[in-house]
Amino acid sequence: MSSSTVYDLALFLHVLGAFGLIAAFSVEAVGLRGLRRAAGREQALASLDSLRLVQRFAPAAIGTILVTGLYMTAVTWRARGWILAALTGLVLIALIGGLLTGVRMARLGPAVGKAGGELSTDLQGALRDRLLVTSLRLRLALALGIAFLMTVKPPALASVVVLALAAALGWLAGLARERKKAWAIP
Predict the structure, then answer these.
(1) Where is 109: in which H helix or E strand?
(2) Which pLDDT tens digits describe the chain residue by residue (186 residues)?
(3) Distance (Å, rounded) from C-alpha 26 to C-alpha 28?
(4) Which of 15, 50, 79, 184 sits in a 20 to 30 Å window from 69, CA-based?
(5) At how many degrees (to 10) do helices 81-96 and 41-72 cross?
(6) Which string of b and e fits 88-110 if b means at least 16 CB within 10 Å?
(7) Is 144 helix (H, G, I), strand (E, B) or coil?
(8) What are the sequence ranges of the domains in the chain?
């Protein structure tokens, strides 16, 4: 295979990994919504099942993005500001997902498994932990910032500013209260 064919394959897998990460975020959003609405053990377990899929799929997507990105950097781009910023953003996504979401999910699973039919008020509160939503929105904003960096390829300082703005917007979006609409299905 020619080096351009290998590069093209790496680029395809890189984009596929990004699609996989966004898909994982989507499944996580649906799972978190289910957890927040769960009144009983079975509802909560169903949502936790979908979130377990994310725990397997997201690291695979991040690994694919990382390996292919490092390859493309080594053979074509070399270390540039936008690449280093995007790499930092990807590491932040992994750390935030593991430390903010992963640790909480590891505690919630067994607690829901031990619960009776109806969930206690304390457990329902834990399922509605705002930090879970904030973590997701922060990671999604960082991913969008990285997509911007990959597309525009700005200089180093601008890349850092883009990621900082993305993180700030994600954090603020996570802190925003969810509003129930009159037509929303309970």
Answers:
(1) helix 103-114
(2) 888 999 999 999 999 999 999 999 999 999 999 999 999 999 999 999 999 999 999 999 999 999 999 999 999 999 999 999 999 999 999 999 999 999 999 999 999 999 988 999 999 999 999 999 999 999 999 999 999 999 999 999 999 999 999 999 999 999 887 655 544 444
(3) 5
(4) 50
(5) 160
(6) ebbebbbebbeebbbebbeebbe
(7) helix
(8) 3-175
Among residues 157, 159, 155, 133, the alpha carbon closest in space to that of 147 is found at 159
Q: What is the 3-state secondary structure (H, E, C) of 25-72?
A: HHHHHHHHHHHHHCCEHHHHHHHHHHHHHHHHHHHHHHHHHHHHHHHH
- pTM (two decimals): 0.91
Place of tokens 């890189």: 14
Dist CA 20 CA 17 (whole Å): 5
Burial of 50 per CB tally in 10 Å (0-12, 13-18, 19+): middle
